[in-house]
Amino acid sequence: MTEVLVLIDAVDGKVTKPSLELLTIARRIGEPSAVVFGAADNGVLAEYGAEKIYTFDDAAFGEYLVGPKAEALAQLVSEKSPAAVLAGASTEGKEISARVALKTQSGWIGDAVDVQVAGDTITTTQSVFAGNFTVQAQVSQGTPIITVKPNSTAPEAVTGAGTVEAVTAEISDAAKTAKITSSKEKAASGRPELTEAAIVVSGGRGTGGDFTAVEAFADSLGAAVGASRAAVDSGWYPHTFQVGQTGKTVSPQLYVANGISGAIQHRAGMQTSKTIVAVNKDDEAPIFELVDFGVVGDLKEVLPQATDEIKKRKG
Amino acid sequence: MTKIVVAVKYVPDATADRTFSADNTVDRVGVDGLLSELDEYAVEQALQIVEAGDGDVTVLTVGPEQAADAVRKALQMGADAGVHVQDDAIHGSDAFATSLVLAKAIEKLDYDLVVFGMASTDAGLGVVPTLVAERLGLPAVTFASEITVDGDTVKIRRDGDVATQEIEATGKLVLSVTDQTGEARYPSFKGIMAAKKKDVQEWTLEDLGIDAGSVGLDNAWTKVESFEPRPPRTAGEIVTDEGDGGAKLVEFLASKKFV
Ligand SMILES: Cc1cc2nc3c(=O)[nH]c(=O)nc-3n(C[C@H](O)[C@H](O)[C@H](O)COP(=O)(O)OP(=O)(O)OC[C@H]3O[C@@H](n4cnc5c(N)ncnc54)[C@H](O)[C@@H]3O)c2cc1C
Ligand SMILES: Cc1cc2nc3c(=O)[nH]c(=O)nc-3n(C[C@H](O)[C@H](O)[C@H](O)COP(=O)(O)OP(=O)(O)OC[C@H]3O[C@@H](n4cnc5c(N)ncnc54)[C@H](O)[C@@H]3O)c2cc1C
Q: What residues does the Electron transfer flavoprotein alpha/beta-subunit N-terminal domain cover (chain B) (predicted)?
């Protein structure tokens, strides 16, 4: 079986859920090999099917932008000739993999939401135009290099050998130009990560700036909290939580939009959610065109009642 | 003196019914197009950098005939000059070929800084800035939310998922900017009139020394095999809150096993 390189994303050593999804997808193609910059929990990687774990360790990876990582991964790709390279569709995942694709003269697919394999042919599905179309694509040159969006598949645990191999790369001076002078970690919200959450509860301008009811409802469901750009631009919620074209794309099992009108740019980030619910006091709000269930009403009344009801049911 | 090139893309209007042509490429003719809204932020940042110091702004687009509209809009906002690369052979290019054409055009221009939008509003991959930088051998600072130019040092704030980074770079640089950088200006009447007199150069692949065999649909490294519209959503149930809206909402959630 041929090797498939999977670029692993780990925060403080903890492997992210999208990376486990990538390992699961990689098994459809061949034998997954995890590629780790810095450190990741090798036990978890093996548990999710990594046969090999390539670890790169160099201060340059943290001090500069993606240049050094892209050079290192490109060297590994040239050396191993994998059947494919998979990376997360995060900013960094896309930038590293796109540079690797150019360096190795390989085709690259961005933002896949599914990867199908038939024989030697890998076909991806992308969701485009605010989720209004799905597109099937294939790589026609070089090693298929594919970035996959979070929530594209459920991670499946299958034990792999997890053989660790420390590898080194030659990093050019040209890759070490833009220097990161400071990096401030964001405080954790204690809620599930927005793009990974099974349920997302969002608030918009209709909250009037008070997210208490939205957060309480989210917490009763164990959900992540999102926001519309209107809420973010008003300074009511941090930008990291923005859902939409210029924010996060979420595709949870359940999305609840509260006081959000449903502008095309917001829809672009949530339209592929499996079930959509909205609370809005305007019965003509465009968001209602998308919903499986909608409540025309004031979120300040509807949400607290729903929160109490859920707590009651949970006992 | 900061010479800035801003890359701007002409895209189908996101509020119109965007679709594909028979050859699986984006329909750029049947749907009204415009300057990608996210590129307005790039033009705005370039104008602000020049206004705070000294320099000029050239906008660059690669696209069909109508793409001249995108250049025109940027000139109306205040950019000094425009370049439109147009060649039938470019039709259907992937992100890699697009980046090749852009990089060659940028090389032909005199520049210190290249500014992009964070992503197009059609394909929205957000990697063209990175690919152009890779081709030019330059660093790319993407998704910048704040930019300050101080002599030949550019300082950038980047608001990522996990952390907020401060980045410093000297020398030539590729930037992409987010919509967090600040509202883009509207063209003034004066700006609209002045734009009519500004110079727009039209270049072909030949002018850039690019072989037609390295761009276009037939030479793309990635190919779209098929597309299909999402099935329409079946109309959902909508209730009006009469004091029991929250309870009804939870009943629905329970019926779907979310509670
Ligand atoms: C649905 C769909 C899916 C696609 N998937 C892939 C894929 O997986 N892999 C692939 O290689 N190609 C893909 N393409 C092709 C790709 O979108 C085009 O090559 C496009 O020209 C560049 O990518 P982008 O629009 O995503 O640019 P982005 O990287 O999102 O654009 C970022 C910025 O680059 C600048 N820019 C981009 N294009 C131009 C231009 N023509 N002129 C001037 N400035 C520009 C703008 O400043 C823009 O804001 C896809 C196209 C579509 C329609
Ligand atoms: C280039 C570009 C990129 C963009 N990117 C994004 C993006 O990523 N994400 C995004 O969200 N937007 C984005 N936008 C902005 C988008 O166009 C809308 O302006 C935005 O989504 C509106 O947010 P909203 O629905 O919260 O506010 P509004 O459109 O003002 O809607 C507020 C809604 O709340 C309802 N309401 C008011 N009070 C109550 C109440 N008490 N109870 C219940 N309902 C109430 C109102 O009826 C209304 O429907 C972008 C725009 C541009 C131009």
A: 23-212
